[in-house]
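just leaving the lab so this will be short. what follows is a protein written twice so to speak, once as letters and once as structure tokens for the fold. can you read through it and tell me how you think this chain folds. anything you notice is useful, everything is just below:
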Amino acid sequence: EIRQMVKNDQNMQNLTEEEKKELVDKLSEHRALRNMSVRAMNTVAMRDVQSTLDSIFKMLDGLAVRTGVYACLFASRGHVYDTAQATWFGTDNVMDFWEDVLQVEADEIARKLEQWACMIGRSTLSYNMQRVCTRLLNSGLRTIAKRRDICINYTNFETAIKEKLAIDIKGWPEGVTFQSPTSVNDLRALLKLRGALRDGSCHWFRMTPRQRDEFHALLDARRKRGENVGKQRKKRADTGVPRK
């Protein structure tokens, strides 16, 4: 059906190789974001959870039949307003382990997991995503700059990174403000940034001599107009006072 729609669309005919590649890249990006994105509505998220867990349960059951492996899992919502219920699953009689050895029922474990997840799980996930993005960005910059003592200066990025090092970043996700990941609290934005960094669509590159000259000329023109390029460091309170 989709192929027929494309066939009937005049705008999709006689595409150049570059246009075809762009459409394929957009489709790949859409699929990647769909697989790791945060669902906008609780009802959609609940259906996603149930469908995915059902598939996992069937896979584990099949694996147990084929190999005799024992497996169990617990799942819980990550926010108090989510509608998905805490649940558990085990192959064969593996859930007896919790009662026989640890003297705790599976339902009790699921309940405590849900309490923990609703209290700190969401904030922990955002915090972890901030750390992952920060690590990927700094690691990429250090690799291309061949320096291990450098970190990204977001406030003075134009002067401290682009002007001084002739290094720039390409492919920063659209809709995500260019700032330190530690200042981003939107989990969806963090996931989008992490995905772009991991698949390489967002990456560091060295500016060509021409790009560097053009950028320097642009900064010089802004400075001549009296613009403040970057954030100036505050002067010390004891500036001008002789030090021993």
Notes: Confidence is low (pLDDT under 50) at residues 36-40.
